[in-house]
Amino acid sequence: MRDYKTILFEERDGIGFVTINRPDAMNALNGDVLDELADVFAYIGSADAIRAAILTGTGKAFVAGADIAHMRTLAAAEGRDLIIKGQRVMALIENTDKPVIAAVNGYALGGGCELAMACDIRLASEKALFGQPEVNLGIIPGFGGTQRLPRLVGKGMAKYLIMSAETLRADEALRIGLVEKVLPPEQLLAEAEKLAKTIASKAPIAVKMAKLAINKGVSLDLDSAVAFEAEAFAGAFASDDRVEGMQAFLEKRPADFKNK
Questions:
Q1: Could you count the other beta carbons within 10 Å of the beta carbon of residue 122?
Q2: pTM for the complete prediction?
Q3: pLDDT tens across 103-140, in order?
Q4: Which are the catalytic amino acids?
Q5: Which domains, and CATH codes, for the chain?
Q6: Distance (Å, rounded) from C-alpha 37 to C-alpha 18?
Q7: At what angle do helices 111-118 and 76-95 cross, to 10 degrees?
Q8: In a 3-state reduction of DSSP, which class is residue 164?
Q9: SS3 150
């Protein structure tokens, strides 16, 4: 068990459960939260026993944004340093080998929306709210929001949401492709765990290579992307998991994957 000040962490049945735990501050992101998220996701990425992760928040918020009271005191250079730290954490989550599911239980605003977008899959409570309200504060999204949002919902919709600072309900976020599924609040974590266990039951190397091919390919032209896909396919094909998976299929039995 790893002990943190601002997050809770638990390993269970091959799943890493990460819960941001600053309910009095609506789980707002500050330097401590970012440092602890970096530590726990570095651990998740290196732990062979963990095959998927779930990220959520305590109380009414997933993450209601960055810690504005703290940001208000920063000089421009310090603000830039904070943004770079946040960008590195988002990239760590996005690029870790393990699939990360965001269970968005409430407010996901500003940095919270950006944190959810850095995850691979987003499940949302019917009570969740999404938005990038930074222009109301005289700033812009800085933890990757100007880049990940258009990749998820399209350039025009991203400009609309960022420039208007409009807040979206979960059903509207689902309609535009910002989240993958909306659930009653009492079903959210159970559904996230069910999905994580489903993914964890698959060949770990195949899941890793699929995530890598998708993440890398979206920034390439199609010819380069499919060439990269071929290399990722070859990486999975060379594994013991591929031999076991195909043999299990032919023998009509469950596969026993070893992540090799």
A1: 29
A2: 0.95
A3: 999 999 999 999 999 999 999 999 999 999 999 999 99
A4: 114, 134
A5: 7-200 (3.90.226.10), 204-250 (1.10.12.10)
A6: 8
A7: 30
A8: helix
A9: helix
